[in-house]
């Protein structure tokens, strides 16, 4: 059976990896990004360049949106040149961006109000970083109707590790809620790793040996193991995972927590530390650069 043609928007660090992995898996992928250089890079990697959102969407029965924020999603989907007006009947739309659950639910409502309730919409944020995106081993947390999840399952599974596709009960918004629970730990663990390695340096310990000891112990976290090589190599510009991304996610968490009257003191503190770093010029740096900030405090 031939594989469907895919439309894709958002060819940044994560999106580029996801889209090129689909190409390597035999899908024809038409990719668009607001930065022409990103589209050219995608074409060089075997993808089909789209010159506009319309071109990326017309005739595509499956579409992946991987832009950075809810305002960008809104423009991509419902702006003057938004893709919703161009997708064919009964298309499957995967929203892989990290957005508030309330926003994902508003997308479903707006599809209905615009007469596009035929679109099979899946709220499916991803996690794992650029390397896992390119390898097709992401963690994906997906919510939607049974019909939508069934339609998008093969595509979701292609982009995720065999045991890392989570079909979260609860419909649209459930995937985004699960991603936020995940990101509570991510936001805290990035700073925990930074603080631990900053203290190790201050105490005169060998950084690599200290990290190896921690990673091999019960104190291990994925964020520590993942971020440490970039910490020690000072590989921060451009950031593989810019500080602004985890700051955005922490903001979604604390806002959602307030709406649900649930205290999140650790994540709130993490948000304030990231905001402070942003004001000191760390925004575009990799979030692993936080260890230098923590060691300087």
From TrEMBL:
It comes from the Eukaryota. It holds the Pfam family NAD_binding_11. Residues 5-161 form the 6-phosphogluconate dehydrogenase NADP-binding domain. The keyword NAD applies. The active site is at residue 179. Residues 173-290 form the 3-hydroxyisobutyrate dehydrogenase-like NAD-binding domain. One of its GO terms (molecular function) is oxidoreductase activity. Keywords: NAD, Oxidoreductase. PROSITE patterns: 3_HYDROXYISOBUT_DH. Coiled coil: none annotated. This is DNA, SC010. It comes from Aspergillus oryzae (strain ATCC 42149 / RIB 40) (Yellow koji mold). The lineage of its organism: Eukaryota, Fungi, Dikarya, Ascomycota, Pezizomycotina.
């Amino acid at each position: 059976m031939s594989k469907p043609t895919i439309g894709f928007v958002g060819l940044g660090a994560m999106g580029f990896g996801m889209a090129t992995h689909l190409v390597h898996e035999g899908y024809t992928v038409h990719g668009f990004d607001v930065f022409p250089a990103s589209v050219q890079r995608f074409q060089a990697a075997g993808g089909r360049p789209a010159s506009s959102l319309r071109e990326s969407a017309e005739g595509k029965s499956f579409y992946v949106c991987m832009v950075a924020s809810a305002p960008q999603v809104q423009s991509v989907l419902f702006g003057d040149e938004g893709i919703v007006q161009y997708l064919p009947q009964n298309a499957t739309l995967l929203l892989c961006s990290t957005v508030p659950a309330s926003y994902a639910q508003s997308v479903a409502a707006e599809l209905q109000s615009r007469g596009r309730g035929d679109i099979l919409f899946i709220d499916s944020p991803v996690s794992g970083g650029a390397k896992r995106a390119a390898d097709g081993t992401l963690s994906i947390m997906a919510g939607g109707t049974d019909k939508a999840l069934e339609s998008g399952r093969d595509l979701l599974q292609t982009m995720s590790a065999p045991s890392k596709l989570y079909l979260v009960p609860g419909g649209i918004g459930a995937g985004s809620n699960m991603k936020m629970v995940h990101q509570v730990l991510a936001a805290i663990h990035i700073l925990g790793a930074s603080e631990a390695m900053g203290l190790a340096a201050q105490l005169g310990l060998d950084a690599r040996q200290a990290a190896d000891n921690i990673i091999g112990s019960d104190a291990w976290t994925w964020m520590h193991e993942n971020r440490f090589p970039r910490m020690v190599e000072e590989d921060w510009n451009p950031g593989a995972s810019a500080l602004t991304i985890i700051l955005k996610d922490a903001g979604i968490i604390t806002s959602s927590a307030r709406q649900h009257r649930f205290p999140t003191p650790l994540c709130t503190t993490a948000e304030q530390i990231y905001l402070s770093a942003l004001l000191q010029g760390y925004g575009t740096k990799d979030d692993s650069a936080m260890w230098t900030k923590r060691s300087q405090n």
